[in-house]
Amino acid sequence: MNRSTPDDHPDGRPVSEDRVRRFIAAKLPVLPVPGIPDIRLHKAGPKSELRRLAEQDPQFGSPYWAHYWGGGLVLARYLLDKPEIVAGRCVLDMGAGSGIVGIAAAKAGAAKVYAADVDPYAIVSIELNAALNEVMIDAVLADLTKSQAPDVDVVCVADLFYEEALAESVIAFLDRCLAREIMILIGDPWRAHLPASRLRLLAEYSVPDFGEVTTKTRPAGVFALG
Fold first, then answer.
1. How far apart are alpha carbons 149 and 123 in whole angstroms?
2. How confident is the model at residue 213 (pLDDT cuts 50, 70, 90)?
3. Region of 95 on the Ramachandran plot (φ > 0 left; ψ -120 to 50 alpha; else beta)
4. Which residues fall within 8 angstroms of residue 52, CB to CB, at 6 or more apart?
């Protein structure tokens, strides 16, 4: 995989990586992850002023990377609880957002970690959060649903089953990975388009989810796809 940066804007417009980096560092406080105090992330709060980025860049999308998601929380927790799953292996965190799952994989001893997302702002967030946690991650700006199976040992997917069309494209990509005998791990709080009939539950935790306060939790599972 080749590393891509936020300067490679999807519509060709340059995005100032330095400006975004400074904004995230200044406006998104560093917080310990709920239930995973060993990981700290830049996260949005009441005074984060993310609307300023939206006003400055018409291509600014939903800042999913700035918030906690239940699937990412449980998958990160699982990798830290079961480091032997990824230790010494090459891991891809697909739809990485803040990079929490990739960070957990690196902390668990993965030999190499890629974190891919379609949002250039997420790439900056991933790199900042990786540095904050003192791990090495290759951030990749790419829509992997249009790609062939990568040369990795494990693919981790969290929270990508909230929309039918997206879920279908993600599953098609994961099937290409399975054909290459790549291990697939999924973290998800039982969203509507999760391919539950094809999954084996490995672990379950109660965690906060996107759009909820961190004191409110719901069950979310870690699954193997087969």
1. 21
2. low
3. left
4. 23
CA 178 to chain centre: 20
Collapsed DSSP state (helix, strand, coil) of residue 144: helix
Interatomic CA distance for residues 146 and 3, integer angstroms: 17
**pTM to 2 decimals?**
0.90
CA distances from 163 to 25, 85, 99, 101, 173 (A): 31, 28, 21, 21, 16
Decide: residue 153, CB within 10 A, 0-12 exposed, 13-18 middle, 19+ buried: middle
As a whole number of angstroms, the distance between CA 122 and CA 64 comes to 8
Please list, in sequence order, all residues whose beta carbon lies within 8 angstroms of the beta carbon of residue 130, skipping any fewer than 6 positions away.
99, 102, 103, 106, 115, 136, 137, 139
pLDDT digits (tens, 9 = 90+) for 135-163: 999 999 999 999 999 999 999 999 999 99
Residue 80 has pLDDT above 80, yes or no: yes
Q: Where are the domains of the chain?
A: 17-225
Residue 183 pLDDT: 99
CA distance 96 to 20: 18
Q: Is 191 helix (H, G, I), strand (E, B) or coil?
A: coil
CATH number of the structural domain 17-225: 3.40.50.150
- Total Cβ atoms within 10 A of residue 125: 30
Q: Residue 39's closest CA among 91, 101, 88?
A: 101
Q: Is 201 helix (H, G, I), strand (E, B) or coil?
A: strand
